[in-house]
Amino acid sequence: MRRERRPASFWILAAFFALFVLFLYGPLSAIMILSFQGPDGGLTFPLNGVSLHWFRNLTEQQAVGDFGGSFRRSFTLGLMVMAATVVVSLLAGLAFRRRFVGATPLFYLTVASLVVPSIIISLGIGVMFQQIGIRPSWYGSAFGAHLTWTLPFGVLIMFAVFNRFSPSYEEAARDLGASPWQTFRHVLLPMIAPMLVGVGLFGFTLSYDEFARSLMTAGTYNTLPLEIYAMTTNVTTPVLYALGTVTTLFSFLVISLTLAVIVWLGRRRARA
Amino acid sequence: MAIAVEQPAVAPARTTRARLASVPGRLVAYLQAAPLALILGFFLLAPIVMIVVVSFWDYDFARLYPDFILTNYVDTLGSWVTWRTYLNTLKYAVIVWALTLFIGFWVAYFLAFHVRSTTMQTVLFLVCTVPFLTSNIIRMISWIPVLGRNGLVNAALLKTGVVSAPVEWLLYSDFAVVLAMVHLYTLFMVTPIFNTLMRIDRSLIEAARDAGANAWQVLWNVVLPLAKPGMAIGTIFVVTLVMADFITVQVMSGGQSASVALMMRNQMSLLQYPAAAANAVVLLVLVLLMVAGILRVVDIRKEL
């Protein structure tokens, strides 16, 4: 690539970008540091000694409520939403490649799912379940509520993927005598696999962090964001930050693993 | 959902597409679309219909009574508190929209036009994306040690002698609400704008330069018009998210400000579901009108 001198606008925008990144990560790092606060420390700087006191505190039920249980529920729910989002989005993406009656209304319904305020979905599902007489639960009503948020992302991503996908690969496979299933399994799927992993990441993290849609749909047992929210109103010690640090690191771990899988898939394809 | 079982009226013509499957292609499409249609039908469409129905119901502290009364709407629209709350929510929407659009455009512009290698672009884009995939509530809480009375900003201001007493309005104020919303939602602006900027044919910019346009003219007459669809999609995201927000308003204003969704949330916690439903219908109509207005500017189907 030709090396030319960077114009002044580059440096101004680079500084702007750096400030933006600082704005994104600064506060987050503040609570990460403060979660190592000494046992007598408070919610703000300075650090009053360094300890793991607040992380230990996290495991005690009376200090923070049911952290372990809510984490397990959110994790399981995230996996369920992830699996459903990947499968349903992929199928819908394939359907939209053909013409069918109702394709346009279904597309607009999907977009509507993205713009309808989350609290309205929460209220609607909550009241509907109450009137039908089904008890709301995190694995039932909340699962459905989360899907209304993750599916539009998944479907729109698949829509974009298939818009750029040339049918000539499948035609070639068919001409070579592949059955529709073989074409799907050995031609289409490997090519779109990285995008599907991305859709899965969206499904998991959006569900894992969802608050408003769980509000009236989670039923008796809290998911993690509901638990964290309850803590913000009644916990005034750095144990709140410890919880924030743990869940954020967990999110980072999930994101890194996903990226690793995407890179690995890319390499494997490049080798093949 | 009827379309799941609906058979194609005529056998599909034997086009290349239809030969893809041994089952008639059209039927396959219906089966593939069925899960999405069923889920959205049951968890999106039915709840909204339910809300519309319930908004005409009567209620007391114990239960709901199926009815057809307009009291809930009259109460909602007849109260000046409602109007003030709507105005306040719209105020947040406008301010946050303007800020995220400005920040989002320049961040996307930097990534698309100033970062040269694709790898670096991907890495920097991921750096912007990662916080979006972490908990919103945690990201809100993380402003407490920064903006609080004894927080980092106040400590710095006191030390440098800019102020003599801690600034009180940094946290638990409209300022904090807007700051947190910008913090949470800017990415929704960055991504679509970045996407459209990446698809601008670079030869257009070279042509403009060759024709004698300076940097500002290129930006104003070439890049900005072509970035409009991305800006419109980002605007839809940000505006609908702000209009639906209640937790940022509640946490960051310390209960001192209101938003429409927060008003609904309070009615819901008092089990006044029909009142909340009436509010929900008004809010939904308003949001859909705003989105329809933006969609008149851009056909998002073309953008995917």
UniProtKB/TrEMBL annotation, chain A:
| UniProt cross-references to CDD domains, sorted A to Z | TM_PBP2
GO CC annotation terms, alphabetical: plasma membrane
Q: Where in the cell is it found?
A: Cell membrane
Superkingdom classification of source? Bacteria
Membrane topology is: Multi-pass membrane protein
Query: Does the record bear Membrane in its keywords?
Result: yes
Transport among keywords: yes
Transmembrane intervals: 12-36, 75-94, 106-129, 149-166, 187-208, 239-265
Name of the featured protein? Putative spermidine/putrescine transport system permease protein
